[in-house]
Amino acid sequence: xxxxxxGVADTTPEIRKAIxxxxxxxxxxxxxxxxxxxxxxxxxxxxxxxxxxxAKQLTETADIVAVNQPTRQSPLLLRVxxxxxxxxxxxxxxxxx
Length: 97
Description:
Elements: E1 6-10, H1 13-18, E2 28-33, H2 38-42, E3 49-53, E4 56-57, H3 61-65, E5 76-82, E6 85-91
Antiparallel strand pairs: 1-2, 2-3, 3-4, 3-5, 5-6
């Protein structure tokens, strides 16, 4: 997701277990963050597991590529698992200055 300033990769059950998300059936792991990108500004961290975009469950990287670009009026809501706890992060698509 270059426009949002972060990169993701597919996961395996072993990866999800290693990041304390073994109860999740699928998801994409955040592998890169642009420091001033929209993802980092919204609170994403490398190693986060993104399980859903809105109501859509993510099973492969193509799932997140297909989502609409977020705006301030219509943010992108991500369900994120970090250290075994799920939370929601809204990305507005604000870009670097």
